Structure prediction request, 686 residues.
Amino acid sequence: MNTEATPGPLHEVRGPSALGGGSRRFFDLLWLMSVTEFKRVYFGTVLGYIWSLVRPLMLFGVLLFVFTKVFKVGSDLPFYPVLLLTGIVLFTFFQEATQNSVTSVVAQEGVVRKTQFPRLVIPLSVSLTAAFNLSLNLVVVFGFVLAWGVDPAWTWLLLPIPLALIFIFAGAISMALSVLYVRFRDVLIIWTVAAQVLFYATPILYPIEAVPDTYHRLIFLNPLAPIFEQVRVWAIEPDAPTAVDVVGGAAGLLPAAAIYVGVCIFAVWIFNRDAPRIAEEL
Amino acid sequence: MPAAVTAIEARGLEKTFRIPTHRIDSFKERIVRPFASRDYRELRALDGVSFEIERGEFFGIVGRNGSGKSTLLKLLASIYRADAGTIRMAGRLAPFIELGVGFNVELSARENVVLNGVMMGLTPQETRDRLDAVLAFAELEQFVDLKLKNYSSGMLVRLAFSLMMEVDADILLIDEVLAVGDAAFQQKCADAFHEMKAAGKTIVLVTHEMATVEEYCHRAMLIDSGRIQHIGDPGEVGRRYVRLNFERGSDVGAGPSSDGSDEVRLLDAWIEDAGGTRLTNVEQGDTIRLRVELEALRDIAGVGVGFILANADGVGVFEFGTEAVVDGDTTALAAGKRVRVEAEVENLLAPGRYFVHCGVNRVGGGVALYVHNALDFVVYGGDPHARGVVALPHQIEARVERAR
Prediction:
């Protein structure tokens, strides 16, 4: 045991907070929690990773059948299956990150109530774990994209931008939901429904051209819609309408951008406001 | 010890909890009944608490349930935020509110140690470096990759405790976690505590176990109703704590305890047999007929009476009392009124010498009178094969089985 400890001068203790205990410790904890949780799922059960892959693939298989054989929405689009799979994998990430984080803070009750723990780590580590899953799933998607005969393009280098935007959005929503759930237990149900709505309000099942023009602006109020559209253009179909084309000019994207930023600001605000008191509310 | 250096400084800490009279916990309810009452009751858990703890000090915090000691601990540990006041600390603090609380049973010991080490402020590398030491202290080397869900509760506690020892924080905050593990491990823990004490660590221990406080602590603090009642010598804190326990049953809002013997006087206290003859010895199995006479010296709103039967070791074997003394339809006592207390207790006490402490508390809270050793008596007889503090009614039989 080290007897030569030099604790140094007195510093003020400000109580619990979102980041509490310094950024170094915050990132160490965030990383460790996400990695151990990921490893647990990945190595914990024999089928661990298989399951996380099977879910989007099953959904993909069913939807592909329904929308090419039954409704014929996508049958005249050469790249429909690739688009569908990419969209589903990305949305699965978004849904997993947000859905799992809702109960995360409450589930970690012991840690929150009995240790000095930066609260923000909890929902964000859920998002990060989902992101690890996503990166594995993207390997599968990538293979599928190449196998389907999509030509590699320089715009693939731009893909980290939409991916980062989705990640940040998911993280922000996770923050807000996890802290709201502490006080309002029906948040989980509300969000399950809301996520479903978002899924249909994002051009995943259908190409945006298939929707009457009058609804384009409505759909593009959903911040995920332009992001997913841009992934389509950059990753798979360079000739597809870009997000800007769909709404007829960059100004048309402003409402979505405003909602995106608004959600992020709201999330940071409410998390910061409630973080110091979570332990008391539980 | 070098000149006193402050390790923890608390100034004017206040903490109030709001307890809603009707808890609204869904959006649905909020929407359906937007004007539902948002009334809440305020509970003042800490009310202007200030103290300093020096570096290298082993400091005990003692208090009854609901006294505010846990709230104070959580403020120090950055789990709650104070409404007012400041806390300043020198160095890194590791809180142990409950052993092994951060453990995830789905993960192996290795992963848990690393995760918890970082939680307590080490870097991941430092934690990995100390992993071996943690496992060695806990004697769990061969189980490093076993998931914690397969650990016994004793193993878990050992792992948690050794982690605590190895984290090597400057200030340790410990909440009644000492009584863990088997006897051998307890001895190890005791040694470790003495070692930490010798190494000049600052340790804050929250407990209601006076023996622990008196064994380890340099200084102690008694807290009640959110206020500091006494800071100083652990022995004195212990005595005041015992006295405070007397007031149980009185309101939480009790002020500082006093012997205020200008209100009530103890006239006489004795034990008698069924015929009314006074006794000094009671056979085990008989009834202890305890009699006390009190006199009110002033008009008072009402009193309750309580007794502690303590054995020769000072252990309060049994404490009991009445809520209030009723005179007709009022609890008020006029000056000069006499009260006779008659208590019948079945004598289940182990043989030995016993002391009866008698307390009188005001109905509104506060001690009106406390008499240490109001009387003493000896218990004799009983089963020569039984030992312990009490003699519980029991049956025991040992048979040798017949060979078939």
